[in-house]
Automatic annotation (TrEMBL):
GO terms for biological process: cellular response to oxidative stress; hydrogen peroxide catabolic process; response to reactive oxygen species. Its cofactor is heme b. It comes from the Eukaryota. One of its GO terms (molecular function) is heme binding. This is L-ascorbate peroxidase. Pfam families: peroxidase. Belongs to the peroxidase family. Ascorbate peroxidase subfamily. Keywords: Heme, Iron, Metal-binding, Oxidoreductase, Peroxidase. It comes from Thalictrum thalictroides (Rue-anemone).
Length: 334
């Protein structure tokens, strides 16, 4: 074949990777005409200028039959493609993008620097129940059923903060607790000067609490922490990056409302070894265990020296965390 056969026009569906051809029989006459409107999904689809001939300085007075025919064929292709494209747009759940904007706007009203540490802890305690071995737990909103557990003490306050925003959003569009918590944590990081973390929406809430005893214990040493996080699908590097969230709050790692790399700098100083009384109150036992492990210490030094690297690695680890164990809404089919 020397060139494209214009009587056979093919369309490729990039969403399903399927390929099909639509053959058109072109009218012999050369006059311009508009295609008739047609109905699709209860809508009347019109193509106004799609089949108007190409007009140029060289063809206004003497129409080139080839250009005229090509223009009409393009119009036919456009007309034939409209129902295909409309079908694609209707098959996607476009509410996700709308919900993201309205959800973010709602959260900005309630997420403040002073509340950020609690909101970020809420994320870790909801997603931290994930168990890779049986794909149980994870980011599923079950934390709202688990607030009376000893390890979740103090989390009723951040849930109450989100409850107000969620009730207003639910009047327009139902938002899952899992999505609400995941985005609230990302916004908490951002409002305190940390990286902006895009969060995918569409998580489905669990109807029951997750099994108990799935969260990492605060008393674990570095080896125990690495084994625990490995069981959730996280490396030692991701463990250290996520631990950097402890820079927020009153654990003694610098400004309690600033998300930065001070946490790692203080870990290297090891103030808890000082004879001063209050220095032993810096961080959790699990925090103080990290610099005692050579693999973790390597990442602590990297993040203490380069805040941008910490931010990028935290973004990646946070995204992985809030997607762990999540069940997702299915795409609506037309």
């Amino acid at each position: 074949m020397n060139g494209l056969d214009p009587s056979s026009l093919c369309l490729v569906n990039s969403f399903s990777s399927s390929y099909f051809c639509v053959k058109f029989k072109l009218p012999a006459k050369d006059e311009t005409r508009k295609p008739s409107p047609f109905k699709y999904g209860g809508k009347v689809i019109k193509s106004e200028a799609a089949v108007s001939p190409i007009t140029s300085s060289s063809s206004r007075n003497n129409k080139d039959p080839y250009l005229h025919t090509l223009s009409r064929r393009r119009g036919l292709l456009f007309t034939a493609t409209i129902p295909f494209l409309v079908g694609i747009s209707e098959s996607l759940d476009v509410n996700a993008a709308v919900t993201y904007q309205t959800l973010l706007e709602g959260l900005k009203k309630v997420v403040t620097k002073q509340k950020s540490a609690g909101l970020l802890r809420l994320v870790f305690h909801d997603a931290g129940t994930f168990d890779k071995s049986d794909n149980s737990g994870g980011m599923n909103g079950s934390i709202v059923y688990e607030l009376d557990r000893p390890e979740n003490a103090g989390l009723k306050k951040p849930v109450k903060v989100l409850e107000k925003a969620k009730s207003e959003l639910d009047e327009r569009d139902q938002v899952s607790w899992a999505d609400m918590i995941a985005i609230a944590g990302a916004e908490a990081v951002s409002v305190c000067g940390g990286p902006v973390i895009p969060v995918q929406l569409g998580r489905v809430d669990s109807k029951v609490p997750d099994p108990e005893g799935k969260l990492p214990e605060e008393s674990l040493d570095a080896f125990g922490l690495k084994q625990c996080f490995l069981g959730k699908g996280f490396s030692a590097q991701e463990l250290v990056a996520l631990s950097g969230a402890h820079t927020l709050g009153s654990k003694g790692f610098g400004n309690p409302v600033a998300f930065d790399n001070t946490y790692f700098k203080i870990l290297l100083e090891k103030p808890w070894l000082s004879s001063a009384g209050m220095s032993n109150m810096v961080g959790l036992p699990s925090d103080r265990a990290l610099p005692e492990d050579d693999e973790c210490l390597r990442w602590i030094k990297i993040y203490a020296d380069d805040q941008n690297t910490f931010f990028e690695d935290f973004k990646s680890a946070y995204t992985k965390l809030v997607n762990s164990g999540a069940s997702w809404k299915t795409i609506r089919k037309s």
